[in-house]
Design a protein that fits this description.
It is built from 14 helices and 31 strands. With about 575 residues, the chain is an alpha+beta fold. β11 and β12 form a beta hairpin. The structure holds adenosine-5'-triphosphate, magnesium ion and zinc ion.
């Protein structure tokens, strides 16, 4: 391919809204352009890599025995109404009406569609097991689209849905996908860590996320340095023994606290430590206000809370609701004497002589004792685990780091096959309901994550397996006939075996080298001064620092060597 004909608008400057390396480099290297918030065009160079990622995913999925389908993205709302998710999905789902005023949806995920395919087409246990997948566009109206193609509103996902006769079958599919995902990410040159993930309150039984460790990741991961415990903070647990303090319960007392509102101010005011406080927070769960209490030095983990109370929607209450529930403005809430349900973290039920609000402006209560002064309607672990706490498995000190979620596998169970009434004829002549799993990979996010992991100050360093081209040939002077002729001869010859780009633009060598590095083509061949002098060419592997000189007649052999060496890095 001729670079001059390829529409690669490289940039020297950093685009305004690009905050993270991959976004900056994808923009600067001319791989993507923004059309609107969370909406991106892949330009030719970027699309080549996107297609390579897709090809790897497709090969590995096919090898795993999965079958590819191509369902519509525009989905009649009735399927979503059947599963019960039409009302639950909230604003993330794009909704529209067709010309007949029928409700339609732009698919944010495809459980309903694949379940209906199985319902309409699978009659007997003999047709199972099945793992059906698509590589297709998804729409999600994200609250905060950002980081380029990492979190956008329209993106390509590989999503697979398995259907099995029984749980043992699902376990097998889940295992196969775990292995397949490892192979896919390895071949893409991406180092991932599988971590335990939240299964929600929808009957799922196991879930793993594939995380790319990265300081710009939006997920927090809790990891034990000693054993194999690694979990998304959303569900991470820690070992904690909450023991009742051996102190005399004192009578409850109202204290005037005019200028203290935050925990820090109160800690100072009462001359104590945060663990003597009860944090009392009003939430609204599925439209109903609740009071949630936790020890003052802990944070509430909203995912755990949501699961504990089996809510679909959970949000912090607004000022008006807080006033209604507690009779006081924000900052003075307590669980004592309220009419709403009280949910308590385990940490609270052993507390004695604790401090909390008085449900009265500018007043707090001290010497609150659980059980004597209030009782929770529901008690559970709703704490957010922090680094420094103890591992739930081996008690070693937990660490935390950030990660980007590139893939997700999930044992769904019977949620969709039940709600959508899928019946298959069993071996015994009786009907049964198949059990499901689902498995997703974000294609664009995977590509961006590879860049997060593989770059330097000059630009992208593509793994050769997904690089837009294997080789770039740089003739340093387009006016020099001998150089140009040689460069094109090499180009023609190597193109028979490799994907080769030639920088035929009438640009200065410095510009060409900068662009080659920025775009990150793994192997660069420079046809320049050394060719005139000694008939040799300069080879540079993007991943390495040094350059080597190779005689023209030895070029093909050397290229083959380098190409194989590069490829071996990503073999599974
Ligand atoms: N807005 C998005 N833009 C690009 N890729 C996405 C987006 N949302 C999800 N993905 C990709 O699709 C995969 C499967 O989707 P899934 O529904 O599990 O994601 P999710 O849990 O909503 O992700 P997140 O927590 O990042 O929003 C994710 O692992 C990710 O790689
Ligand atoms: Mg999401
Ligand atoms: Zn451990």
């Amino acid at each position: 391919m001729l670079l001059s004909k390829m529409l690669v608008p490289t940039l020297r400057e950093v685009p305004k809204d690009a905050e993270i390396t991959s976004h900056i480099l994808m923009y600067r290297a001319g791989l993507i352009r923004k059309l609107g918030s969370g909406l991106y065009t892949f330009l030719p160079m970027g699309l080549r890599t996107l297609h390579k990622v897709i090809n790897i995913i497709r090969e590995e999925m096919n090898n795993s025995g999965a079958l590819e389908l191509l369902p519509p993205i525009l989905i009649p709302a009735e399927y979503w109404k059947e599963s019960g998710r039409y009302d639950l999905m909230g604003k993330e789902m794009f909704r529209l009406k067709d010309r007949h005023e029928a409700d339609m949806v732009l698919g944010p995920t495809h459980e309903e569609v694949f379940t209906s395919v199985v319902r309409e087409n699978v009659r007997s246990y003999r047709d199972l097991p099945l793992n059906l997948y698509q590589i297709n566009t998804k729409f999600r109206d994200e609250i905060r689209p950002r980081f380029g193609v990492m979190r956008c509103r329209e993106f390509i996902m590989k999503d697979a849905y398995s259907f099995d006769i029984d749980e043992a079958g699902l376990d097998k599919h889940y295992e196969i996908m775990r292995v397949t995902y490892r192979r896919i990410f390895k071949r893409c040159g991406l180092e991932v860590v599988p971590v335990l993930a939240d299964t929600g309150n929808m009957g799922g039984s196991a879930s793993e996320e594939f995380m790319v460790p990265s300081t710009v990741g939006e997920e927090e991961i809790i990891k034990c340095p000693k054993c194999d415990y690694v979990a998304n903070v959303e569900l991470a647990k820690s070992h904690y023994e909450f023991k009742e303090e051996n102190i005399q319960p004192l009578p409850i007392e109202e204290v005037h606290t005019p200028n203290a509102k935050t925990i820090e101010e109160l800690v100072k005011f009462f001359n104590t430590t945060p663990d003597h406080f009860i944090k009392s927070i009003v939430y609204v769960a599925d439209g109903i206000p609740i009071m949630v209490v936790i020890r003052g030095d802990f944070e509430i983990n909203e995912t755990k809370l949501k699961n504990l109370i089996k809510a679909n929607n959970l949000e912090l209450a607004d000022e008006e609701t807080i006033l209604k529930v507690t009779n006081a403005p924000v900052g003075f809430a307590s669980p004592i004497g309220l009419k709403v349900k009280i949910i308590a973290d385990e940490s609270v039920v052993v507390m004695k002589n604790a401090i909390s609000g008085a449900n009265k402006k500018d007043y707090h209560l001290k010497n609150i004792c659980y059980s004597r002064d209030f009782k929770a309607d529901l008690i559970g672990d709703i704490r957010k685990v922090k680094s420094g706490e103890s591992c739930p498995k081996c008690k070693a000190t937990l660490e935390s780091y950030r990660g980007i979620e590139v893939g997700h596998i999930f044992k769904l169970g019977y949620k969709y096959t039940n709600s959508m009434n899928v019946k298959v004829l069993g071996k015994d002549g009786k009907e049964f309901t198949p059990i499901m799993g689902c498995y997703g990979i974000g294609v664009g996010r995977t590509m961006a994550s590879v860049i997060e992991q593989n770059n330097d100050e000059d630009g992208i360093i593509w793994p050769i397996t997904i690089a837009p081209f294997h080789i770039i040939i740089v003739p340093i002077n387009m006016q020099d006939e001998k150089l140009v002729k040689t460069a094109f001869e090499i180009y023609e010859r190597l193109s028979e075996r490799y994907e080769v780009l030639i920088d035929d633009r009438d640009e200065r060598p410095g510009v060409k080298f900068k662009d080659a590095d920025l775009i990150g083509i793994p192997i660069r061949i420079t046809v320049g001064k050394t060719f005139h002098e000694t008939e040799s060419l300069e080879l540079k592997v993007r991943r390495k620092k040094d350059k080597i000189l190779v005689k023209l007649k030895e070029l093909d052999k050397k290229i083959e060597e380098i190409y194989n060496e590069e490829k071996r890095l990503y073999e599974v």
